[in-house]
Amino acid sequence: MNASEGWQRLESRLEAIDRRVRSLESDPSRRNSFIPYIVDRDSPYTNVDGQYPDHDGQPLLMMSGYSYLGLGGDERVVEAAKAAVEQYGTGTHGVRALAGSIPLHRELEAELARLLGREEALAFGSGYAANVGTIGALCGPGDTILIDKIDHASIVDGCQLSGAKVTRFRHNDPGHLDRRLQDSDDSGLRLVIVDSVYSMDGDIAPLPQLREVCDRHGALLMVDEAHALGVIGRSGLGIEDHFDYEHLVDIKLGTLSKGIPATGGWVVGSSRLIQHLKYAARPFLFSAALAPAQAGAALAALRILESEPERVTHIQNEAARLRAILNEAGLQTGLSETAVIPLIAGSDEGAYDLATACRKAGVIGIPVVSPAVPTSLARLRIAVTANHTKAHIDTAAEVFIKAARECNLIEA
Ligand SMILES: Cc1ncc(COP(=O)(O)O)c(C=O)c1O
């Protein structure tokens, strides 16, 4: 054996990805992945100069961003990030448990706990790390984790790290969860995990029904609020706010990379739970602490979320309006009931065709294809943000409908 034999064994895997990229992005005008977008700080427009041979240099209207609250370029958030760098420098001195903690982490965690109605919070380096770390720290061999069929990949990876038995139940189906729990081993801990808002479909988990099923079987309930914080609920505080309950889940967790325009993740819960995670969540213990600029930006954005609830109302109203216009024209938006609106195109190639037609008309809608979504349900993943004015939404709707006609998805 030498290294070249190892590379030969890898070759078929490298070739599989290479073939897939070449088939979907067959010419430069069909590229959708890894485009360096130069985002305008004050508007949802973005520049892609030099990225497409057929592009005339005009800014494009971004309709697939994650920055729901529209705070990515907000002066207050940018200044808070700068102030954090001025005070604490660019990095941290390692992991939180050793020399990596700074007072800003504690401030951010106190704000998260207060705002989200729990005793304490813990900030992770990413939402991915928050899921993997929390699940890995709470469950082990002998336990059972029950996850929704389309839960986020970081939940799936956390389950693998834990070594627990994993069972999937049908998407948003409490009856099926009930049967799965009935059939599961009740000698260990049973943890049910759902996304509050599903990132590719934009529908909401049926929390009260899930809670009732969990209670009947003595199972704990954890939610991932990645696409819910800043998006659902009267105050934008997520799924409990949406269903008008103060405390309906056992473990609430989310990211600081979507509505909150930074990077990082969080978990909120009782002081005992947070203490356990501090000492047992591997991505928290063995990965560098959240960088000062990110903690500063996140803290500022959380304060704006609380003081400017009109941003949340705007997202909710405009998303409902966009969905209604698209549905009226015959476009399918799946199960969406939030800011995330899938434009279902069907085949993977069909989604790429639709994305290209939209871009040529000045709007970016990014395709999501299999295996991220089922093969015949490839889509453009559209997201409405607080930076989209009514006029932006009208423009986008017009472009989506025209492009869908060009691609024969709806009648002309
Ligand atoms: C539902 C969900 N959970 C977790 C994550 C991971 O968050 P982050 O990007 O902050 O690591 C994502 C990211 O896309 C997500 O959609």
UniProtKB/TrEMBL annotation:
InterPro entries: Aminotransferase_I/II_large (IPR004839), AON_synthase_class-II (IPR050087), PyrdxlP-dep_Trfase (IPR015424), PyrdxlP-dep_Trfase_major (IPR015421), PyrdxlP-dep_Trfase_small (IPR015422)
Record carries keyword Nucleus: no
Alphabetical list of SUPFAM superfamilies matching this protein: PLP-dependent transferases
Any one GO MF annotation of this record: transaminase activity
Keyword Repeat: no
Annotated Aminotransferase class I/classII large domain residues: 66-399
UniProt catalytic activity: 6-carboxyhexanoyl-[ACP] + L-alanine + H(+) = (8S)-8-amino-7-oxononanoate + holo-[ACP] + CO2
Domain of life: Bacteria
Keywords for this protein: Aminotransferase, Pyridoxal phosphate, Transferase
EC number(s) on file: 2.3.1.47
Cited Gene3D superfamilies: Aspartate Aminotransferase, domain 1, Type I PLP-dependent aspartate aminotransferase-like (Major domain)
Cofactor(s) for this UniProt protein: pyridoxal 5'-phosphate
Any Pfam family: Aminotran_1_2
Protein's UniProt name: 8-amino-7-oxononanoate synthase
Originating species: Salinactinospora qingdaonensis
Lineage, uppermost ranks: Bacteria, Bacillati, Actinomycetota, Actinomycetes, Streptosporangiales
